[in-house]
Write a structure and sequence with these properties.
- The structure holds two protein chains of two kinds.
- Chain A is 75% helix and 0% strand.
- Chain A is mostly helical.
- The N and C termini of chain A lie far apart (53 Å).
- Chain B is mostly helical.
- Chain B has a domain of 208 residues.
- Chain B has a two-stranded antiparallel ribbon with strand order 1-2.
- Classes of the chains: A mainly alpha, B mainly alpha.
- At the A-B interface, helix 1, helix 2 and helix 3 of A face helix 5, helix 6 and helix 9 of B.
Chain lengths: 102, 469
């Protein structure tokens, strides 16, 4: 029987990979994918906790469903913005988006 | 459960949908009434929530809290929305046929804020947060042909999504330890575990991002500069106040201060935010960026009240959030009027504003001095509450940092005043803002002065709202 710690560790590792992707990827689409990885790590956490800690209510599963829906909305807007910026610069490389600087 | 308690929220949601449909149905010439419809709808929402103030009820088994605390912020957001619509209508008009959805997204962002402030449960809080931020992503990138605007939108989206993920990871760990997501029940189920500490730290990081606290502030100036100026105004005031509303509710109720010692962590964050925000603001040459760094510093001041966690401090948080709406939106309204006229947001464009439009210059000066905390304006009273709360809770050093940096802030606020009154400008044509901008400006001016001279009513209102804690 796999216990909760294993799931939480999996979630943390996946989250870590997502963070690494966000920080290292230079391609805007790749960054969005890495963010998805982070959100899915959270989903794993929620569902595992729901099963092991509070199985009388399905709060964790509900939360996961909401996260999936919101993530889809976020990506829809994100891809639209990437398209808009691609039309202007013919590039999706984050290094090229450097007009705003302090 | 009374569904009528939700009347303002329902009204705002319907208004947003109505605006979407109306934009499609109206002939091209009739589009001018969109601003009026938004304004009237928000006035109705304001009246509804004012009428509902003081009633306390937990709706849907505590998922949604209709309480004074939520109502206070509801009033704040709707007032901010109204002022943005009034002062921004000239700017929004220039967007042409895409102006319709602009109003609709503003209203949906407002709805998200309201839900965030009243959420009694973390899922609801998350949905409110995302409704607000996704609307803001779109609004930030609204000038699709403007490279700055689109770039700011994409940056905001990426950083916003990351911060949401961090916040959610924190929530999932807190849920793992407590087994519940109802805010008022979490404290009772918490035991001390490493997962709990990690969860709290990640939640602080997530919220700090939304509040643009140092070191999570890097996004704010870029996004504030790139976004259309009414959006920047709403973002600086509304989104920040909403994040504070949720932050205070979650941390005071779910993770109460004596049990979970996050006070010192936040005190250090607040001190860094105040120092860095004010120091970097000194060298800015663009009014939007200047106000962005100033708003970073202001978030630090508000955080001082939360760190104190006592009656004075929390009252200060609500009080300051409200006066910040008027002072900051007043400054942004002037900046909007100047941008509509000159097409520029650099401080250069403000030169000789004192001669081109004495009213605009005077209101800008009053609002900036209020933000700096000069008596008898509203900002002084707010800072008085915040810092006396901090001293009462034993954070003398934090109050000292706050006071010191307030003095520094006077310098860069007065730099703008200097440009307006002493500077010379080649273009000396008078700037005449339209009527709705003028109404918004007078409201901001009147509120900033009145709250400063006679703070008792707002103070009593804030007092009622914090009974919850």
């Amino acid at each position: 029987m796999i216990d909760l710690t294993a799931y939480l560790l999996l979630g943390t590792v996946l989250f870590g990979i997502g963070v690494y992707g966000v920080l290292s990827k230079r391609n805007a689409v790749g960054v969005l994918m890495s963010v998805e990885l982070m959100l899915n790590a959270v989903n794993i956490n929620f569902i595992a906790v729901n099963k092991f800690v509070a199985s009388s209510q399905v709060i964790g599963q509900l939360f996961a469903i909401f996260i999936i829906v919101v993530a889809a909305a976020e990506v829809a807007v994100g891809l639209a913005l990437i398209l808009a910026i691609f039309r202007q610069k013919k590039s999706v490389d984050l290094n090229d988006f450097n007009l705003l600087k302090w | 459960m009374q569904i009528s308690m939700l009347a303002p929220e329902i009204e705002i949601a319907l208004l947003g949908l109505l605006l979407l449909v109306l934009g499609l149905l109206l002939p091209h010439k009739g589009r001018g009434i969109m601003g009026t419809v938004t304004f009237l709808g928000l006035v109705i929402a304001l009246l509804l929530s004012a009428a509902g103030f003081g009633q306390e009820e937990a709706l849907f088994n505590g998922v949604y809290q209709a309480d004074s605390y939520g109502s206070f912020f509801k009033l704040l957001f709707i007032l901010a929305g109204l002022l943005v619509v009034l002062s921004g209508s000239a700017y929004i008009q220039r967007l042409g046929r895409r102006a319709n959805e602009f109003y609709s997204f503003l209203v949906f962002a407002l709805l998200g804020m309201v839900v965030m402030a009243a959420a009694g449960e973390l899922i609801t809080l998350y949905i409110g947060l995302e409704l607000m931020t996704i609307s803001f992503y779109i609004l930030t990138a609204y000038l699709l042909n403007n490279e700055l605007s689109v770039e700011a939108g994409l940056k905001y989206l990426i950083l916003g999504a990351i911060s949401s993920a961090v916040l959610l990871f924190g929530i999932s760990l807190v849920y793992a330890v407590s087994g519940t997501t109802v805010i008022s029940e979490i404290a009772g189920h918490m035991q001390f575990q490493p997962a709990m500490v990690a969860g709290i730290i990640l939640m602080i990081a997530g919220f700090a991002f939304k509040l643009s606290l140092v070191p999570f502030h890097m996004w704010a100036p870029d996004i504030y500069q790139g976004a259309p100026i009414p959006v920047t105004a709403f973002l600086a005031v509304g989104s920040k106040a909403a994040a504070f509303a949720a932050f205070v509710r979650v941390f005071m109720l779910a993770l109460p201060l004596p049990q979970f010692e996050w006070g010192l962590v936040l005190a250090v964050l607040a001190a860094c935010t105040i120092i860095l925000g004010n120091l970097v603001a000194l060298v800015q040459t663009d009014i939007k960026r200047l106000l962005a760094y100033s708003s970073i510093a202001q978030a630090g001041y508000i955080l001082v009240g939360m760190v104190a966690g006592n009656e004075y401090g929390l009252k200060g948080v609500l009080f300051y959030a409200m006066l910040y709406v008027f002072s900051n939106l007043g400054a942004f309204a002037v900046a909007t009027a100047v941008e509509v006229e000159t097409g520029s947001t650099s401080i250069e464009a403000f030169k000789a504003l004192g001669k081109r439009s004495p009213m605009l210059a005077a209101i800008m000066t009053v609002c900036l001095l209020s933000l700096a905390g000069i008596p008898p304006l509203a900002g002084f009273v707010g800072k008085f509450y915040l810092f006396s709360g901090a001293i009462g809770a034993g954070y003398l050093w934090l109050a000292f940092v706050g006071l010191l940096m307030s003095m520094v802030s006077v310098y860069y606020y007065l730099m703008v005043a200097k440009a307006m009154y002493i500077g010379t400008n080649d273009d000396m044509t008078p700037i005449k803002p339209d009527t709705s901008t003028r109404v918004a400006l007078w409201i901001c001016l009147a509120a900033t002065v009145l709250i400063g001279v006679y703070p008792a009513p707002l103070s009593a209102l804030a007092q009622t709202a914090i009974q919850l804690f």
